[in-house]
Amino acid sequence: MNGNSWSIEELRVWNRWGFLRERLAEGHVAPYNWRYEDEILSLEGLIENCRKEFPAEASCYVTEVCAAAVLSGMACGDKPVASQLMMPVLYDQPASPDEIYRAKWAVTSWVMVFPGAEGSPKGRVCSALVGIGERDFSAEFPYWLERVCDRKAVKSVRTVVSLVKDCFGCGMFVRPLLPDKGSYQICGRSLGLAIFAGALAALRGINVAGKVCFSGVVERSGRCLASGYVTMKAGIACKHGFRALVCGSSTRGGKTRTVSGLKTIPVAHVNDLEWLLVSYGPNGVLKAETTVEIMSQPELMASRIHKIDLKVLDSPMFSDRYVSNVRKLMESQDYMELFAKNLAKLCAINNNSPDVCRPLLEPFQPDFLEELMNVSPEAVWHIAMGGWACLNAGGDVCEAERWKSVAGRALEKMASTPKRLECVADYENRAFVQYRHMCFHFSPDLPDGFARVLSVLESVYETLGCEVYETLGRMYGTVAQNYGFCGSDYLDLLEKYVRLAQKAFGDGRYPALRNDWRRELNYLVYGYLDAGRFDDAGKVLLSYLEISDLDRVEWRKLGQYEKAAFVRYIADTGYPWFDEEAFVEKYLRSIRAVHPFQFVALNLGRVVKNRDIRRKAWKKSFEIAMSLKGPGQAMGFLPLACLCVEELADDDEILEGLRKICTTLRSIKGFNRYHFPGLFDERLLLDISTAKDFLTKIWAERSRFFPFTYR
Prior knowledge:
Number of helices: 33
Low-confidence stretches: none
Strand order of the largest sheet: 4-7-9-8
Structural class: alpha/beta
Helix content: 55-70%
Shape: globular
Number of strands: 9
Largest sheet: 4 strands, mixed
Distance between the termini: 48 Å
Radius of gyration: 30 Å
Mean pLDDT: 88
């Protein structure tokens, strides 16, 4: 067994051997080390056995630890039951069962070095259960806290409780998890950082217990100070299986070091502590550090916002610091333009994740943009293009129109330069996608404005004789897509413009543009599949996935578009995929609700033969499609058609699904209402026969209704 893990049954054996007290004193019997999976269902009976067999203090401790694991969410058990289990050991505190149940909980840990320790690491890891409740939460800490802590430690806990109340308007519950509550064992102020970290973890729903240990002083101002014995504490934490030790630091900008085999991360203020907790992962220490550094100064945020750890976006502290930094950046046109350009880059990279883009774009409301327009129309342009990309990808064409309007006004204010020409090209490119492809207007004729700018850029490209012209490459890529959507009759033009786009992206020779170059291969895969040229599709797919044999596909390493192309290929060609049913059922539970995962789920349903799994896959595909906005919900016709044709949905499900899609599509200004014959027929939503005929036709002619990358 893992030396750091334990179970109640094991503790009962240790007790029979007469070594329970020593086992508990080692510090490994902590909530994060409990192997609860086999014991959670019989927890009440096991706790009762402990009460009968263990010394009173040991029984109390094991009960506390188990309840802490459940309350903090580390063990998936019944929270009300855990609350009741906790009550017998809370006789010394006035918290009610209801307060315990409603509070938010976390477990936090720090390292306690034994007084007078020298040489090899001597000490233990201590843990505490931290609860966050309403401001007047009636339990702060037990009366025996002063019996186990010296005055500095008690003062440190009181300081953190007051700071948390001021910062978050919350009351706190702090209960050290100790097997012995009758003797002095916690000294100094170094537990303060751990207690504040516990409060943050409870508030934000972050679980770092058993992964990150803490040691540092927290002052009333929120400053964090260093504590002593860091080398010794790092050794102890490492021995207990921790991956990092977060330490107080008197100055910002300290570097992560490896001490006694453990990473030590300095933190100078509790605000920075939140960035670290949100960002930290098993391999994420450096990214957490980077995020703290990026957000510490407006100038650093301007140059590196596109490298921020996206997990911090949900943090309330992010919004405050972000808005403050953006305001300060407006004092410098150069920095503001740099920030806006990098922000647009971040939005473009994550344009299929509206939850990522939304908090980044939140500060840029109309009044703010008007003010910024006077500082730098170029900055407004980049921000608007980022917002436009995000909303287009999410299918929200109405809100995307607002960003398009902002981008257009910014263009009008920009000086006529070669740089502005490229901005106009990107503008026309984005409009082409929005008004044609997203709204199901498929025509080989290029929009006039787009065609004019394309011609100018081609002349510039030819005149300059440059190897790379990224803006032109993007336009060629859109033309290639357009011919792909127009069907197999235009396959030769799709191939032509893929080649032109790849040449403009440097023919794959430049690492910075390699992903753009590879994306064109994705278009060829779909074009060949639509044309029934499966051998060609397979060859290009190998190049796109950068492998020599499809049997070597590593699913977890594929990106979202790579997964979509691969699954479409195996669904269309019947390529055998090992153990697909077990894989599909497991994967559907974790699939993300963003484009193009509706097609991944759709085609996984086509791959498997098990009818129950097929239904799950197509239901998931429909759910993802309906999570999109605007025209993107039309994608829901495909899985609904599958469910209908395969008779895996009842009549009510079919009519309800059609109602949801049609209600959205009928309300969209600019949507090609003629693309789906019968879409506006009222009988479609009232007569099941009409509905089934409509969906049967959709599936039978899916290559016409959903060509190219749309299935």
